[in-house]
Design brief:
Length: 383
């Protein structure tokens, strides 16, 4: 038993597990939020800005009562709003590409929390998932593969090389200092951002002065532990989402009699394709099967995560279900957010194969699936 515990401890502290899963989560959530911001760009003032029904004064009163974080409440200036929205878009692009991921993940979290906490009644359920995952991604080393940081590390020997990282963290430090001096931060968020800034500064300093020393090894162990804890929390969060959704559905009379899906198919708000919705709603058997199947899959999934074959089958079914929700009910961003969350359970072999196929689309690249070299992170969990 002691040998097993020692092996598990060495694995948790010695490597950041699930590098491909964390990368696909990073890409999925950054891409989903980016597409949402771009799609709603013409309506940004009505959603989160000065022209919204949830006025700045109402938002200020709510923030004072619940202590939520949003930099949009630092000023009611239109210029400040446009700046924050632009930073949210650019940080999403940076995180999607895996560029200076430690800094862009913090900016991404700030953008998500600032916009969503400014107007709490905007969203379709997927915003709650993005809200949580934006916080968890800060803890993860999600740029080990499929990122510009990984490419820089291969070419230069360090992902921290170059001046862009220190400049970006310097700007972040100045913004955090302004928020602290002016009292814009609550005590909890001030501590969080101060800790992130100090750790990032230590990492850069040690990586520059002592890249192979004990200080770097200690920071790597800390980063691995935080990454693995973050990935565990993400997996637990996904299971919790499905478990609560499934068990709440079980208690609903419309889900019990198999007619729950019929009702949204008759609402104009959820029928982007009226003909398709009418065709589906016209089949009582299909509506019943889809309603019962949804409940069964959501209730069962958390109990199958340790059975690889069953888990993979249910994972494919749930992703297809969310794709159907995007098409039938007109909720694309909710579906993309849930598919991105589901991706934490995708098998590593499939992700490596998928990455090889995507890389093969580039001119001069082979379509053969590459073997994992000893220098690459070990995709030990999840399988």
């Amino acid at each position: 038993m002691r040998a097993g515990l020692a092996t598990a401890l060495a694995k948790v502290t010695g490597q950041a597990l699930g590098p491909y899963q964390s990368a696909v989560i990073r890409i999925g959530f950054a891409g989903t939020w980016l597409f949402f911001l771009l799609r709603e760009f013409p309506h940004r003032h009505e959603l989160y800005g000065p022209d919204g029904p949830w006025s700045w004064a109402l938002a200020d009163r709510l923030i004072d009562s619940n202590g939520a974080f949003t930099v949009l409440m630092w000023s009611d200036s239109a210029v400040w709003f446009e700046t924050v929205y632009a930073v949210a878009v650019l940080s999403s692009v940076g995180l999607l590409l895996g560029w200076r991921t430690r800094a862009t993940s913090v900016l991404f979290m700030v953008g998500v929390l600032s916009l969503q906490n400014r107007s709490v009644f905007m969203g379709d359920g997927g915003d709650n998932v993005i809200h949580l995952m934006a916080v968890y991604l800060v803890l993860t080393r999600c740029a080990q593969v499929w990122s510009l940081d990984a490419r820089r590390a291969r070419l230069r020997g360090s992902a921290s090389a170059g001046a862009a990282g220190p400049v970006l963290w310097g700007v972040l430090g100045a913004v955090f200092a302004f928020g602290a001096v002016t009292g814009r931060f609550g005590s909890g968020w001030l501590s969080v951002f101060a800790a992130l800034w100090v750790v990032a500064g230590l990492w850069w300093l040690v990586d520059r002065k002592e890249p192979e020393g004990e200080g770097r090894a200690t920071l790597s162990v800390l980063a691995n532990v935080l990454h693995n804890a973050g990935m565990l929390v993400i997996m637990a969060e996904v299971c919790l989402i499905y478990a609560t959704a499934g068990w709440y559905k079980v208690q609903g009379s419309r889900w019990q009699d198999g007619t729950a899906l019929y009702y949204p198919l008759g609402l104009d708000y959820f029928t982007p394709w009226p003909g398709l919705s009418a065709l589906l709603a016209g089949s009582g058997t299909l509506v019943m099967l889809l309603s019962y199947g949804t409940v069964a899959v959501q209730v069962a999934f958390p109990f199958t995560v340790f059975n690889r074959r069953v888990k993979n089958v249910l994972l494919a079914v749930m992703m297809l279900e969310h794709a159907g929700i995007a098409v039938l009910l007109g909720l694309p961003f909710f579906s993309l957010a849930m598919i991105a969350a589901d991706a934490v359970f995708l098998p590593t072999v499939f992700l490596v194969w998928l990455g090889a196929r995507v890389a093969a689309l580039r001119p001069g690249r082979s379509a053969a699936t590459p073997a994992l070299s000893p220098a690459e992170p070990s995709p030990a969990l999840p399988r």
